[in-house]
Specification:
Number of domains: 1
Shape: globular
Number of helices: 2
Helix content: under 10%
Distance between the termini: 41 Å
CATH superfamily: YVTN repeat-like/Quinoprotein amine dehydrogenase
Strand order of the largest sheet: 1-30-29-28-27
Radius of gyration: 19 Å
Largest sheet: 5 strands, mixed
CATH architecture: 7 Propeller
Strand content: over 45%
Structural class: mainly beta
Length: 417
């Protein structure tokens, strides 16, 4: 195994690292609230040589993917932890200032739409509509060109995950313990009740089956058209990452292990990690990438679960699903940076956001908010989403809706159905 550091290795945890571990112990829900600070806790997206991402410093950034130089930044009034989506030369993302933004590729505001609460969810764009969830428990549909609200669907708890569109149906989980299926007009088709929150992490849809995790420690497989349960997998601990799929295998992490199971719900392998996965996971070619709370990004063989390499950053790597472009890996970090490393775990560049002080965080326990604590670090699918006739594939993690050759995907061409 190859290990690469950005600083000298140290087994001694700082006091601040212990604070974060205390906040994220088993009985607590995942940390989803962030104050202003420079931390990058969202997933970047790379397209046409540009890296797009938000930061808790309230800015949305565009960088040159090759050298990390800033091309532009767009200010909001709150931390930006919503991963961006791009369609038709517009970038869509949410902010903790309660607005969904549509911004041009050169960083100019097109419109913004006010929700009633903070936006953590990644937007989905389909047929001139943008769908996203909010901490107000509402799933919104707005016009992609104007930002006009088309409809709202109310649940009883925050919706933090990205809504997925498959066969003209919208699928998403809510922290009211339910997983929902709606028509494109916002009418309910079915809902499935789990034992705990089901709205933290993104689902996967493949071969008419919906796969998602619940904080009740299970991975569920439901029939997409009816919501009937096909199987559930007991992970013994709550999932702490979204599910990612490659071929007939599903990958996800919990607070103690990282798992590979097949699409029939059978265990393929599990990797003890000793510390929970950091809420982000990506699959690229034959490798799975995820972070632990030990400040490392791990590269693991997808077939065997063997750790091939790990890269030590200068802080905790959380809520960021790595993106891939031109042989490089991009991910955010609590140390107020976005990293670019090679697929051999060598640092290419690191971009520092406008604030050097990491964000404050707090979580919940038994419905009560804990005190905000500073986190400081040593210097150290069948088609998952139906698109229109012409598909314009975004750079970043290859979508499960693309089945062509990877070399063509990376060229960023347009494809026909």
């Amino acid at each position: 195994m190859v290990e690469t550091d950005t600083e000298e290795n140290s087994s001694e945890k700082t006091i601040q690292e212990k604070i974060l571990l205390r906040l994220m112990q088993e009985e607590r829900k995942p940390v989803t609230d962030f104050s202003a600070g420079g931390s990058v806790v969202t997933s970047p997206l790379v397209r046409n040589g540009v890296v797009y991402f938000g930061s808790c410093d309230k800015n949305f950034y565009a960088l040159d993917a090759e050298n990390g130089k800033m091309l532009w930044s767009f200010p909001t009034e709150g931390p930006v932890v919503s991963p961006p989506s791009i369609r038709s030369n517009s970038i869509y993302f949410g902010s903790y200032d309660r607005n969904l933004y549509a911004v041009s590729l050169n960083g100019k505001l097109k419109w913004k739409f006010p929700a009633q609460e903070r936006i953590f969810s990644k937007p989905s764009v389909f047929q001139e509509r943008v769908y996203f969830g909010s901490c107000d428990g509402v799933l919104y549909s707005v016009n992609a060109r104007t930002g006009k609200c088309l409809w709202k669907f109310k649940t009883n708890a925050p919706i933090l995950s990205q809504p997925k569109i498959y066969k003209k149906t919208i699928f998403f989980g809510s922290n009211d313990y339910n997983f929902y299926a709606l028509t494109l007009d916002g009418k309910p088709k079915w809902k499935f009740e789990t034992g705990k929150e089901a709205g933290f992490f993104n689902s996967v849809i493949y071969n008419d089956t919906v796969y998602f995790g619940s904080f009740d420690s299970h991975i569920y497989a439901l029939k997409a058209n009816t919501g009937n349960l096909l199987w559930k997998f007991d992970a013994t601990k709550p999932p702490n990452t979204p599910i990612k799929r490659k071929d007939n295998f599903l990958f996800f992490g919990t607070r103690t292990h990282f798992y590979a199971i097949n699409t029939e719900g059978k265990l393929v392998w599990k990797l003890p990690i000793g510390n929970h996965a950091g809420s982000g996971v990506s699959v690229f070619r034959d490798m799975v990438f995820f972070s632990g709370n030990d400040n490392h990004l791990y590269g693991v063989d997808a077939k065997t679960g063997k750790v091939v390499w790990k890269f030590r950053a200068n802080g905790y790597i959380s809520h960021t699903c790595p993106a891939f472009y031109n042989g490089k890996i991009y991910f955010g970090c609590w140390d107020c940076s976005l990293y670019c490393v090679t697929q051999n775990a060598e640092l290419v560049w690191r971009f520092e956001t406008s604030l050097s002080c990491p964000s404050l965080v707090f979580s919940e326990q038994n419905g009560q908010e804990t005190e905000k604590q500073p986190i400081e670090w040593e210097e150290t699918e069948e088609k998952e989403t139906e698109l229109e006739e012409k598909k314009e594939f975004e750079y970043g993690e290859p979508s499960e809706d693309y089945t062509g050759e990877l070399k063509n995907y990376l060229k960023g061409k347009k494809y026909m159905d």
